Amino acid sequence: MDSTRVTEHPTSHERRQSGAGRPSTPADPRGALLRTPEPQRAPGALPAQPARTGDAPTGSAPSTPYGQHGSSATQASASTDTPSPSGTGASTPPPASPGPEHSQPSASEPDAHRPRPAPEGIPAQPGMEGDRPSGNSTGTDRRTGQGLPHAGPMPMRRDGDRLRFVGAATRRIARGIDLDEIVMGLCRATVPTFSDAILVYLRDPLPVGDERPTGPLVLRLRRTDRIPEERDTENGFMPALRPEPNELSAMTAELCEVRPGGALAEVLRGVRPVFADAPAARAALPELLGDELIVPTGQRAILAPLRGRRRVIGAALFVRRPERMAFETDDLLVAAQLATHSALGIDKAVLYGREAYIADELQRTMLPETLPRPTGVRLASRYLPAAETARVGGDWYDAIPLPGSRVALVVGDVMGHSMTSAAIMGQLRTTAQTLAGLDLPPQEVLHHLDEQAQRLGTDRMATCLYAVYDPVAHRITIANAGHPPPVLLHLGGRAEVLRVPPGAPIGVGGVDFEAVELDAPAGATLLLYTDGLVESRLRDVWTGIEQLREKLAATAQLTGPDHPPPLEALCDEVLDMLGPGDRDDDIALLAARFDGIAPSDVAYWFLEPEDAAPGRARRLARRALSRWGLEDMSDSVELLVSEVVTNAVRYASRPVTLRLLRTDVLRCEVGDDVPQLPRLRQARATDEGGRGLYLVNKLARRWGATRLSTGKVVWFELNRG
Length: 721
Fold this sequence. Notes:
Number of strands: 21
Number of domains: 4
Structural class: alpha+beta
Radius of gyration: 41 Å
Shape: elongated
Distance between the termini: 86 Å
Protein name: protein-serine/threonine phosphatase
CATH superfamily of the largest domain: PPM-type phosphatase domain
Domain PPM-type phosphatase: 377-594
Keywords: ATP-binding, Hydrolase, Kinase, Magnesium, Manganese, Metal-binding, Nucleotide-binding, Phosphoprotein, Protein phosphatase, Transferase
Number of helices: 14
Helix content: 25-40%
CATH class of the largest domain: Alpha Beta
Strand content: 15-25%
Mean pLDDT: 75
CATH architecture of the largest domain: 4-Layer Sandwich
EC number: 3.1.3.16
């Protein structure tokens, strides 16, 4: 790329020098501006300002710039300022400088504009002894064809260079949101512009916020970076004995325990970066790095503590090769800025990681860890947050086993995407579980949820769909509170959107909810979901529902009319319909495959509450087991049925129900009109009763008792065969 040279002419009030009319030195043939030679200055002194054209004293000789040796710079300057012997007044062009395009303007060009550096980039550093021309990958001069000297990173010659570098580096570090990104940003920003290698040590474990660390201070090598192998030289930054593989992490100790009162502890306590040649750092580096890594001398290494908001959290070591110019005193300020920004970013990343962990744990506890396996129905679920940064939301789903082998299917959505929404969702989910345990009708459950939402606050709005599936009757009862309608996929591949009353959202108050009862044929699949699956900025709700219905029908066609698609694969296919712009909201998905219980696998009787009821229950159970070919279970079943029925008829005032269900297990249910639940207790030797539930607990696979609106049900299960 050729850069255009712009020369500003002096104004009328500026004094013209005697040599002002002399033609200026021509630009480099490659289009690059000549480098401005600057005098050397003592460490810590302010940099010399470039002289203006009108103020330059006559006869002043330029001084030798950094990186040049002998009199080469003086000769080049002389050849620039001396007129040609021919007397024509034209200046003799200087030898072609191998400097890059963005080198500094020469002193003979008054106030030449420097090219603007690329935004967000690290300033390019040309070579010290001879800069490689831009775009020349062959390492030869394009005019002469001769080889160019080795190009190494050039030191920052002005405070402006350092400021631009620090600004670009800190912006790169600030882009990271987690620990690895921030440490990687520090390494990539400094190598090779500021140093040839870097080692970053962090405290293990890292304290979070105001958490006070316990135990000794241990530093762990988090990341290393260096110039690639093909750019190394024989005298580069290498260990005494080079190990394999060739990585800095293999050359230094991974863990370092900082001894209280030791040299490393003193350097870290000092906070400010120090040269490795300083006495304190010379004693601290072996403790940090071990004995295998050799650090170049002559101010070619800087040890910078990483201090967060409250305490030191690590250290960074910047290293240059021996053939590269040593660090200057001002570079300590650069290292301090890099260390400060990195440490504060690490502090924030650790705090963000802790908050993300808390959010994940909160979301995990709010949703069911595993779904139950009720009789006659198979379940699958999915949950996707709105984005990676919003890990919690107000969507939830649940499956609650009910008496009589029924199951309640719940899906809801609280407004918002925050910890507050998740907390409200948790309260509503707990309330729904409690109400389901009372075996209330679906519309009554929604009514009580509405009252609970109003008690939580006037702006606590949510939608919810509550359904109860009965595998014996092959029926499902659904009540809706402003939620998208469910979709039923039939066995033949037909998908339909169920017509349920929409209802008002939970939290509105004063609204009557309505329930509908629909057929739930065996082999059908019911899909409950939140609006995040069907609504986005690119489509409305009903368009998304129609696309969902078409997706389910197309998926069912792949397995044929007689075989429903696998439930887990069906959920994955549903989520695959989401596009890049369809993740504006959380997504909760609950799929239920209705297997049902055949009428031939059900036996049901009514027993009058009288003394002969236990004996009649034993005979009925024996006949049912004989009809099912389960005679080997007769003794256990008769014993347990007799105990449970005896307890029921003792206090019941209405007929007692007895039901046997044959599925993968044998389930027995006894219901009565007494709401008080039985409790397992240890009977004393002199007690005449109190041993019935003890026998049930010993012999049954599982057992339990559930309170109903009309009484209670005591049930137990036995393994078949």
